[in-house]
Amino acid sequence: xxxxxxxxxxxxxxxxxxxxxxxxxxxxxxxxxxxxxxxxxxxxxxxxxxxxxxxxxxxxxxxxxxxxxxxxxxxxxxxxxxxxxxxxxxxxxxxxxxxxxxxxxxxxxxxxxxxx
Length: 116
Hints:
Elements: H1 8-18, E1 23-26, H2 33-41, E2 46-49, H3 53-67, E3 72-74, H4 80-91, H5 99-106
Parallel strand pairs: 1-2, 1-3
């Protein structure tokens, strides 16, 4: 049994690093904060911060195209993963796999109260 406990965020960060990924682009929040921190401080990786989810994908894709390495983007929870997938799919010229569902619900306005 190991002397020290390894947490899930440490395992994920180490697994990413073990795949020869040394740079990650991210919008860090409460869901990926510990993983991103361990990727930098515990695994010797580099995190390039972004201000928007779409920017993380574009930076990771550009990095991959220029360097020939795998570009990795990380975002936090909430609508951000949907925006990330949408941007990645659009960038590749594909419709997002969830497109009709998300777009249909995104067009709806506020819910009106029921009339009695």
